[in-house]
Amino acid sequence: MQLELYKNKSWMHDINPSFKLSGMVLLFIGVLFIHNINVMLNLTGVLLLVYLLMTGQSYKLKLLLLVPFFFLFFTSAISMVLFGRGDTIWFEFGLINVSEESFYRGVHLGLRSLAFAFCGLIFALTTQPVYLFYSLMQQWKLPPKFAYSFMAGIRLLPLILEEFLTLRKALIVRGVEQKGSLLKKVYFYSIPLLSQSIRRAHRIAVAMEAKRFSNHDNRTYYYQMGYSRKDLWFVLLILLMIALSLYLGIRLPYVPVTDVRYNG
């Protein structure tokens, strides 16, 4: 069972995966230090445009993947909006205390969650795991035994899903699926899947050791990963996103709030 997420490629698929990972991590860290809600709104909007226009997937898939993250935006924002501290009270009832400060802080927190989500989606939809680990081995000198172990583990996930579906059909045919409590159903699924996974992992480990995957010296690679001009484009894209978000957020603010942190 293979998910063809990389059939329609864009220029972002050709960026060096480890370099792309570094850029995304730095962008993640930068987002943590943005306290201006106008800048955060601009950056989230730009990341959404990059996600929709540059990841190369169908719009149906991209919109479908957005659904749980908009729910994440709501759940991240609502708790801060309803229970956060603030001086300008808009609504108060029992434990609920909605203020101007808590509202903007909640929206900012939700936008930050969306920004993280868009960064993760952009990276996941434009990076093949195999290329990522090959790049980590060649550029970041990750030991091959760890890289190949991670790759083998990722390849096992679809097999585990297939086994789960097969086991479920077998239990339905035998009439076991409809009987027993939830704990008993978990027992019926967990023991066979766990035992099969342990056996398969042991066989893979023995095969990898026999083929000298733990050897570090004089190793050759089937995929040769390097840097290209598109890595420079990626850097320029990140700098442009940050500069545009800062300029518009400071010069053309949507709301008169420049810092959502509460100092009362």
UniProtKB/TrEMBL annotation:
CDD domains: EcfT. InterPro entries: ABC/ECF_trnsptr_transmembrane (IPR003339), Cobalt_transport_CbiQ (IPR052770). The chain crosses the membrane at residues 21-51, 63-83, 114-134, 232-250. Its main location: membrane. It is found in: Membrane. GO terms for biological process: cobalt ion transport. It is a multi-pass membrane protein. Keywords: Membrane, Transmembrane, Transmembrane helix. It holds the Pfam family CbiQ. One of its GO terms (cellular component) is ATP-binding cassette (ABC) transporter complex. PANTHER family: COBALT TRANSPORT PROTEIN CBIQ. This is Energy-coupling factor transporter transmembrane protein EcfT. It comes from Sutcliffiella horikoshii.
